[in-house]
Amino acid sequence: MVLGRLAAGAFLVCFVTGVYSHYLQDPLQWMRLPTIPVLYQVTQGTHVASGLVSVPLLLAKLWTVYPQLFRWPPVTSLLMFGERLLIGVLVSASLLELTIGVMNIFHWYAWPFSFRAVHFALAWVIVGALLVHVACKLPVILNNWNSPARRGGEAAGDSASGDRRWFLASVGGAAAAVVLFTAGQSTKLFSGINLFGPRHYGAGPQGVPVNRTAEAAAVFSSAVDPDWSLTITGGGRTRSFDYAALMAMPQTTVELPIACVEGWSTTAEWTGVRLRDLLATIDMPIQARLKITSLQTRGAYGTSEMGPEYATDARTLLALELNGEVLDLDHGYPARIIAPGRPGVLQTKWVSTIERID
Ligand SMILES: Nc1nc2c(c(=O)[nH]1)N[C@H]1C(S)=C(S)[C@@H](COP(=O)(O)O)O[C@H]1N2
Ligand SMILES: [Mo]
What we know:
The chain has helices at about 1-25, 35-65, 80-105, 115-145, 150, 160-180, 245-250, 275-280, 310; strands at about 230-235, 235-240, 250-260, 265-275, 290-295, 305, 315-320, 325, 335-340, 350-355. Helices cover about 45% and strands about 15% of the residues. The longest helix has about 30 residues, at about 115-145. The protein is elongated. Helix 2 (about 35-65) packs antiparallel against helix 6 (about 160-180) and helix 3 (about 80-105) packs across helix 4. A hairpin with an 8-residue loop joins strand 5 (about 290-295) and strand 6 (about 305). The protein is built from 9 helices and 10 strands. Molybdenum atom (MO) binds near residues 260, 261, 262 and 345. The ligand Nc1nc2c(c(=O)[nH]1)N[C@H]1C(S)=C(S)[C@@H](COP(=O)(O)O)O[C@H]1N2 binds near residues 211, 299 and 344.
């Protein structure tokens, strides 16, 4: 019961933060999402932490109920058949969801399908099945809440409940350890004990981790080409800026996090040209929907789309510097996007064009 409640709680937190992340990456037309800098860092850190905590909780919950798998006869009524089928769906979807989630954090993409589409669909299956499961079990749950043992405090003394306490304590310990030993990928506080987190707080060129290097993105030569220029297009107008022209524009410095969907994040100081100043050079309204294209031609993150909330926010930059130095090649030299509250995957590096798409 306790495990069920904790697991369901972790699942719900994971679900809500996951849905938020999904709509930040694929907003519906009418959506205007908040540009609070720390928000995504917190929600996505929570998403990954609650997902990781769900692993020991789910396994422990399954451990306590698996004898029921061998109950005989397996079903006695149609209703019970339905209920057991539902539990089968719930358990298998949950195991698959957590497995691909954990694999994704560790960059092990060993599946032929689109991770995000499947992860998102499974989330709805799980939450739907969970709600029906809880509804089916409501009589048992209510009964348990009203039981004399509960009202008089949980049953004490006998060895069965002693074992149970040890079991719960170990599961709780495992859950806490999983979080403590990975939280260091997004907070300085726990960075000394980051044993599992694949990225490390403040570790990497210019004090910021790198997910995809210039070499992996195959932009090694195009990014350092002296003929590089940024092109901005919209409403029938086009303008190009070489590196010196961008440097000559008014520069702004902001402190913003890179917050990866995989849960790690690091806050840094970025300097560059305000996106809205760039739009203004061709009289593009800040309400425009934009498509950012990178020099990177392969892979899923070579382009990103941007709703009007980001250009409207004066902290959104085409960044040229990071922590007081010219952007490292791996951080997107010559220019990259940095916007508040935006998932890391959309903070496009090695930008070559910005165009209006609405
Ligand atoms: N062109 C391009 N931009 C990209 C990526 C990429 O693969 N290609 N990765 C994104 C991801 S997943 C993250 S988390 C951030 C990481 O930025 P950093 O490497 O500077 O820390 O860059 C984003 N920008
Ligand atoms: Mo990322």
